[in-house]
Amino acid sequence: MAGVGITGLIKPLNSGAFPVWEDIDGLGGFRTVADITARNAIFANERKLGMQVKTQSDGNVWTLVGGLLDANWVLEQGQAPFKATYFVDPAFTGVSTGSMSNPFVTIAAAFAYAASLTISSYVVKLPPGVTITENVTFPPTGGQIEIASDQVLSGSVGSRITGNLTWDITSGTLRAKLTNIVLVGNITGNAGNGTSGFARLTGVRHTGTVTLTTSGTGIWSSAFRGIGAADANKAGGSTTGLVSIAGLIDGSSWVFEGGFTEVAPAVTPYPGCQFQSCWFGSTSGSPIPIGLNGPSLNCAFYDCIFVGPTTFTAGVSNYVVYLDGASLASLNNSIAGTILAGTGIQLKTINANASDRRTLANNLASTAFGSRNADGLYEIAFDATLLVAGTAGVLQLNAIYTDMTGALVTVPVGGTLNIAAAVGTKSEGSLRFRHNGAAAPIAFSWTGIVTPGAMSVAASVSLMCRT
Q1: Model confidence over 28-87: pLDDT tens digits?
Q2: Model confidence over 407-449: pLDDT tens digits?
């Protein structure tokens, strides 16, 4: 195409404040148009490979790649970790490009479009209130893919998928994320030999099961993240069915109604499973199965709630279940069956100690340290200091627990304190004992006072779990 040669700059006459050129009259370059229709109306002789167009209707930028036809307009991608965002709305009619104004009508179409551009890291957004009925199969060659509700308010859940999700991996690493979705269907997946999968559910209300398996040296790591407190409302994040994963399970503020099973993958080692502020079971009180088979040989519960009969089973020996005080108390109070089953499984407490500190003016009847205590070795210790002398009596601390024969016993602890002695007189002592995990909690009492008079004793008692 012939041109007109010039030897100077093109400038406004008399330095006027007006343009000398408009983008829509140029060849290639960058221009701004109203919408997709205006973009496609650009004349062929004004198009150039690599030129870019911004459509004002949706804010997207398009690049001509591989040709000059309308089909060659490619949506400009974002930045890492997600290289693109595609919108899906099954109610849309028209030409789908994946933009907010021209969304795809299926999630599969978004996956296929990304694959055609060799993009493996992207977000698929669903509009609030939409319901998509579709079985969703993630790409088997891995990538980082998130399906999220396009919500404004944090924690709101308004997009629904009715269908099963498949996360089969044949090569590479798949990072699959679901965010603020209502899912009605099962999640299944297999990490093939030499592959790995990272599954993350955030703010998802899930009706169904999760079953993630492995082949060869494949392995999974999973995270269940609730938004807000885990409770009977299940608003923050929940799964109604059994969660079975060959690999790590990490839960936070999640409701596991159907329990979970940790399946041992071939590859080792990996960290043990752990749960923070989670809820196990349902308000119906159905049994909660918890299967422990991982090579890490440990699983920890912090500030968790158990609302039904709970059975821990271990397919390997020497498996240790750690529970903090709040989790242990909830577990013990909910039990209507077996705590432990299997060979070699151990229950250990984390910060599950208790204490009592008060000023005594007389005897104190049996006082429980808390709720039901697990089977284990305990130590009770005390310190008593006479502040004001009394009239008559010898103060004695007693430990009250259920021994290994099933008998509820009361056993004196350490020395005694004569309440008529000089002010400042002290008594202290300790006792180790095995409690069999009976429903009656470990308790203590202060006895021996005949006539207290003006007696005042600073008394401190502590209970420590040694196993």
Answers
A1: 788 898 888 899 999 998 898 888 998 877 677 888 888 899 888 887 754 334 458 899
A2: 999 999 999 999 999 999 999 999 999 998 887 889 999 999 9
Task: Indicate if the pLDDT at residue 199 is higher than 90.
Answer: yes
The reported pLDDT for the residue numbered 283 is 61
Query: Which of the 8 DSSP states describes residue 93?
Result: -
For residue 270, give both structure tokens: 């990996």
Residue (of 128, 83, 124) closest to 106 by Cα position: 124
In the chain, domain spans: 21-76, 128-350, 354-465
The residue among 440, 436, 438, 442 whose CA lies nearest residue 464 is 442
Q: What is the DSSP letter of 215?
A: -
Distance CA 170, CA 371 (A): 49
Cα–Cα nearest to 293, from 270, 268, 264: 264
pLDDT digits (tens, 9 = 90+) for 268-315: 555 678 899 998 887 666 778 888 776 666 788 888 888 877 777 777
Q: What is the C-alpha to C-alpha distance for residues 358 and 445, in angstroms, rounded to an integer?
A: 12
- Indicate the average pLDDT of the chain: 84
pTM of the model: 0.65
The residue assigned the tokens 């104190």 is 364
Q: What is the DSSP string of 108-122?
A: HHHHHHHHHTT--EE
The 3-state DSSP class for residue 329 equals: helix
Domain 354-465 has CATH 3.40.1130: no
Instruction: Output the furthest CA–CA distance in the chain (Å, rounded).
Output: 121
Question: What CA dihedral angle connects 280, 281, 287 and 288, to 10 degrees?
Answer: -30
- pLDDT value at 209 more than 70: yes
H/E stretch holding 327 reads helix 325-334
Which residues share a beta bridge with 465? 378
Q: Tell me the C-alpha distance between 134 and 164, whole Å.
A: 7
Phi, psi (deg, nearest 5) at residue 281: 105, 180
Q: Is 249 exposed, middle or buried (0-12, 13-18, 19+ CB in 10 A)?
A: buried
First-residue to last-residue Cα distance in the chain: 88
**Which of 69, 88, 216, 63 lies closest to 145, judged by CA?**
88
Residues paired with 301 in a beta bridge? 275, 323
The predicted structure's pLDDT at residue 285: 66
